Amino acid sequence: MYVELKDGSNAFPLYLYPDTTNQQGNLFVEKTSNISSDFLSTIKEKLGYIPTPEAIFYYIYAIFHSPTYRQRYAEFLKIDFPRVPLTSNNQLFKNLSEKGQELVQLHLMKSKKLNKLITKVVSNGDNTVTEVTYKSDTQCVYINKNCYFEGIEPQVWEFKIGGYQVLDKWLKDRKKAKRTLSFDDVLHYQKIVVALKETMQLMREIEQFIPSFPIE
């Protein structure tokens, strides 16, 4: 997991691996979970067992994508690391973990859902990004006068992650670099559109699972 704050950025790996560069290292040492024993003890008290590190990570990922969680703790999230509310409801834990896994697959661009494109590309052969203009009435994003992506809903176009409007920033970064989009670039952008729309749907489903905050 990667967390960016105003005063710096932090990476939190799910597993810790032995130092293989040290010749005196133990070749039989395996990777270990990077989850504190106190946290594991607490989650065991809640659920009666300790889930796999992956299941815990997916649960956390789902919680952090709950719109209510983000709104309720918005001020706190601006100044400190996010706190993870734990549930004693095993079914709720499993449901959120499953949704979190779906989100992770989307955001790693590994989900099979990404293969079902929802946009079309209209181009005269010139895919150079010289402008980035969105027209909500036609749901089109223009990258130059004669090339555009069609079928991008306003709420998908406006969706933000980390304070950035994803679809807008992706194109403007390439405009700044005077980039001509390749076939793979165009396909990747279309998959990002799918990922964002599916993310929005999963966030709604996560909300339906969580009865209220604080979670019990």
Structure description:
There is one protein chain. The chain has 216 residues and is of the alpha+beta class. It has 2 domains: 2-113 and 202-209, no CATH class; 117-201, no CATH class. It is 43% helix and 14% strand. The strands form 4 sheets. A 4-stranded antiparallel sheet has the order 5-8-7-6, with no helix packed on it. Strands 1-2 form a two-stranded antiparallel ribbon. A two-stranded antiparallel ribbon has the order 3-4. A hairpin with a 2-residue loop joins strand 1 and strand 2 (8-11). Helix 2 packs across helix 5. The protein starts with a strand and ends in a 7-residue tail after the last helix.
The gross shape turns out to be elongated
Strand order of the largest sheet: 5-8-7-6
The low-confidence runs, each spanning 5 or more residues with pLDDT under 50, are none
Q: How much of the polypeptide forms β-strand, as a percent range? A: 5-15%
Classify the helix fraction into a percent range. 40-55%
Give the N-terminus to C-terminus distance in angstroms.
24 Å
Count structural domains.
Answer: 2
Number of DSSP E strands: 10
The major β-sheet equals: 4 strands, antiparallel
Instruction: Average the pLDDT over all residues and give the rounded result.
Output: 89
Order of SSEs, N→C?
Answer: EEEEHHHHHEEEEHEEHH
Structural class determined from secondary elements: alpha+beta
The number of helical elements comes to 8
Radius of gyration: 21 Å
